[in-house]
Every structure is written in C-alpha cells, then in structure tokens.
Write a structure and sequence with these properties.
This protein is an alpha/beta fold. The protein has a single domain, classed as Rossmann fold. The chain has five helices and six strands; from the N terminus they run E-H-E-H-E-H-E-H-E-E-H. Strands 1, 2, 3, 4, 5 and 6 form a six-stranded parallel sheet that branches.
Length: 186
C-alpha cells in the first residue's frame, strides 16, 4: 500500500466569534473517513504568522509543515466578497513549498457560500504554482446548514466533499510521484 498523502487543512478565519471551527470540524470528519489521507490542521488563529512577512520561528515551522504536505484544503469564510487577510498572509509567508501541490476549498458565508472568495483564491494559488482541484464545497447561510452537534444534511456539500477529496487524492498521488521523479522547475 502507498504511503498516505499528507493533507493539511488550513482554517482561515481568525475572528473571535468565528464559525470556522464548525465547518472545519465537519470537513475533518469527512476527510478522516478516507484512508488515502493523513490529515493535519493548520488553524491560522493559533499560528503567529507576522503580517509584515518577516522571518520568524513560527514562519519556519509553518513552512516546514507546508513543505511536508502533499495536498491542502482551505476552509475559508467570505468577508466583503473576499477571503480573510490571515489566509493571504499564510499564502505569502511561503513560496517554493506550495509548488506543484493540489488545493481544494471549503467555503462559507452569506448567500454566495463563499464562492467569491474561492474565485479570488484560485487566481492567487495558481500564481503560487499550485493546482486547484475543480470541485469545491460551499455553504450558503452556513449557520442554517449545521445542527447543534456540527453535522449537516446538506447533500450537495456532502457529495461535493467526496468528489473534492477524490480529486485531491488523485492530484496528490500524481504530483507527489512527479516531484519525486523530476523536481518541479519553478
């Protein structure tokens, strides 16, 4: 059996009364059902990444985690039609370690379900030489989509999550093999 892919789930919102843990915990449970992944969590609220992008021990540790990962999922809210500044700081804090790795998105917020934030993120992550998977998960009016235990019966989100994880696994295996055989020239 192949070594499991290291999937890092990035929780983007850092607001004090954020809804991110509910969405992230649901997705982490979905990902944990998949044997092809070893799942880690990078909660940006718990990391001390400097907004001025200076080199710190926290940045080095973050960079090491990104470097050892095979795939990513960003769990992101949408604020004012965009994604959180904390996620932009995280993306900009690392350079080469993102390259030739796939990323998926789980978004939430308002009527659009965070899709405007995801569209902006797709532009940024391709500039980082990452591969965005086609499928994404979106929760419009997210607080209405989850029960008190953090579960959801949103079949579209559940189905999209399964498809996205399948795409991440395929791209993760393919790109890990390619990086091993022939390091990415970026």
């Amino acid at each position: 059996m192949q070594t499991p892919l290291r999937l890092e789930v990035i929780v983007a919102s850092v607001r004090p009364e954020r809804f991110a843990p509910v969405v992230a915990d649901w997705f982490l449970a979905e990902a944990a059902r998949r044997s092809e992944f070893e799942v880690g969590v990078l909660d940006l609220r718990e990391l001390a990444l400097p907004v001025d992008l200076t080199e710190t021990e926290a940045v080095r540790q973050f960079r090491d985690r990104i470097g050892t990962a095979d795939a990513f999922v960003a769990v992101t809210s949408e604020y004012n039609h965009g994604y959180p500044a904390s996620l932009k700081t995280a993306l900009d804090s690392v350079k080469h370690e993102w390259r030739a790795k796939p990323i998926g998105f789980v978004s939430y917020g308002g009527l659009s379900g965070g899709l405007r934030a995801v569209e902006q993120l797709r532009q940024v992550i391709t500039e980082l030489h990452m591969v965005p998977v086609r499928e994404s998960v979106s929760f419009a009016q997210a607080k209405r989509r989850f029960d008190a235990a953090g579960g959801t019966d949103d079949r579209a989100a559940i189905d999209a999550s399964a498809r996205m994880l399948g795409q991440l696994a395929w791209w993760g295996r393919t790109l890990r093999a390619a990086r091993t055989a022939d390091p990415y020239p970026g």
